[in-house]
Write a structure and sequence with these properties.
Elements: H1 2-41, E1 48-52, E2 58-63, E3 66-69, H2 73-78, H3 80-83, H4 95-102, E4 116-120, H5 125-135, E5 141-147, E6 153-159, H6 192-202, E7 210-213, E8 216-219, E9 222-225, E10 231-234, H7 235-241, H8 244-254, H9 256-265, E11 273-274, E12 277-278, H10 291-298, H11 308-319, E13 323-325, E14 337-339, H12 343-360, H13 363-366, E15 372-380, E16 386-394, E17 401-407, H14 413-431
Parallel strand pairs: 1-4
Antiparallel strand pairs: 1-2, 2-3, 5-6, 5-17, 7-10, 8-9, 11-12, 13-14, 15-16, 16-17
Helix pairs in contact: 5-14, 6-8, 6-9, 6-12, 7-12, 8-10
Length: 433
């Protein structure tokens, strides 16, 4: 009797193991069946595709065992974080996902089907080539350019980058990281555009107030410092001067709850999606930190972190009268719009950002012929270095371009990123249709 019981137990254990194994297999088949099938069939599946830029330049093409990129090395390298590669080495490339989608797989029959497609992007390869030329291969930087009226992402370059066909060259540290989408940075004074928006809507007499700066101001005994003594200044002049003391005072007047509300409302704490590509979220002190730290957070320091793509969305909304047309890279998609910024607030910020350029950035000398609205950022890192930011847009119906330029440890915003932005925008105005 004991033998029969033991044998029955063994059979039950064996049956349980088989059921468990089949369950694991089925779950894996659902998750990875597509990859298993394509591993063996892609060479003879017959599916072909081309990935084109907005003007028809071939960025990549594939068919059977052929996995091709642009014949031009500069184009391959400059556009790498847009296209990605066939092997998924960067998480933001369109190519690997596009190819996968052309070779659909049926869970029921276990077969793939043939598809011949062309995917056109909104990105201009020539613009990316120019941006890469200006940045060079040694900088760690991120540049985004977008048509704020249509949402078409025209340029996206992250450096350092790689040539996907260079199998022998040394891969620079961080080359597979897309700094435009997958990294967040201390924003420095670019964040004052957020504090300014909150002040416009919540401090009734903000345009009549004056702010006094002697280079240092104590909040609850803790000093907030400024790069210069600006003395008596208006709200508009405070933004032009990028006065830390004025904007620290504004943040404290507004209070932490209000500041958190605006940072959240404008999407700086969200994980956004660009054509299905996830972007990193930013950060802002949401737990109580006290007035001195709140003051520093209002000027873009403290624990503030901003993803360049999130900053681009905010700028696009301001430039477009408060309405955001969501950026996208795949041409022909129906634009998605969001009322992100109050129209009156967007209008005042536009005027103030243009005043920055005219009053403080020597606009005619440094940005000749450009109807530019912008804000610099010199984000201090605590070790003597600073990230260099320059962000803004052209108030120009023929050239409605919003942009973000960031150079890691690049020093002053106007000196490094400002000069780069001028070269990029001058090229874009002269060459983009």
């Amino acid at each position: 009797m004991r033998k029969i019981t033991n044998r029955a137990l063994c059979v039950l254990l064996l049956a349980a193991a088989v059921i468990f194994g089949m369950t694991v297999y089925v779950l894996n088949y659902i998750d990875y069946g597509h990859d298993w099938a394509l591993y063996f069939s892609r060479a003879n599946s017959g599916s072909t595709g081309q990935l084109l830029d907005r003007s028809g330049i071939v960025l990549a093409s594939f068919g059977g065992i052929d996995e091709l990129f642009s014949p031009d090395a500069e184009t391959r390298t400059a556009n790498y974080h847009v296209t990605g590669d066939y092997w998924g080495r960067t998480g933001t490339g369109i190519l690997s996902r596009y190819r996968r989608d052309t070779q659909d797989f049926s869970l029921l029959t276990g077969t793939t089907h043939i598809e011949n497609t062309t995917l056109t992007l909104t990105v201009d390869a020539r613009l990316n080539n120019k941006i890469y030329e200006l940045l060079g291969s040694d900088r760690k930087a991120a540049v985004l350019v977008c048509n704020y009226k249509t949402g078409e992402l025209l340029g996206m370059v992250s450096t350092p980058t790689v040539d996907p066909l260079d199998t022998e060259g040394e891969i620079p540290d961080g080359a597979y990281l897309n700094r435009c989408l997958s990294a967040s940075y201390t924003p420095g004074s670019t964040f004052k555009l957020v504090t300014a928006a909150a002040a416009i809507e919540n401090i009734p007499d903000i345009n009549e107030r004056s702010f006094y700066c002697e280079g240092e101001y104590k909040i609850a005994g803790v000093p907030v410092t400024c790069k210069a003594a600006h003395y008596t200044q208006t709200f508009e002049q405070a933004l032009s001067n990028s006065c830390n003391i004025a904007f620290a005072q504004m943040a404290v007047m507004l209070g932490q709850d209000t500041m958190v509300s605006y940072v959240t409302q404008y999407g700086f704490l969200d994980t956004h999606s660009l054509d299905g590509i996830d972007c990193v979220a930013g950060s802002y002190p949401t737990e109580f930190v006290g007035d001195p730290e709140l003051g520093w957070s209002g000027i873009g320091q403290s624990t503030d972190l901003v993803c360049p793509y999130a900053m681009l969305r905010y700028l696009c909304a301001i430039a477009n009268g408060g309405t955001l047309v969501e950026p996208h890279m795949i041409a022909g998609e129906e634009p998605v719009t969001t009322a992100l910024v109050e129209p009156a607030t967007a209008a005042q910020l536009t005027q103030m950002m243009n005043y920055n350029v005219v009053d403080h950035y020597q606009g005619e000398e440094n940005f000749p012929g450009l109807r530019l609205c912008a804000k610099t950022g010199t984000a201090e890192l605590g070790d003597g270095d600073s990230h260099s930011w320059f962000v803004g847009f052209l108030a120009d119906d023929e050239h409605p371009y919003a942009f973000v330029t960031l150079v890691e440890r690049g020093g002053y915003g106007i000196t490094t990123s400002g000069a780069l932005s001028n070269e990029i925008l001058q090229w874009a105005v002269a060459n983009l249709e």
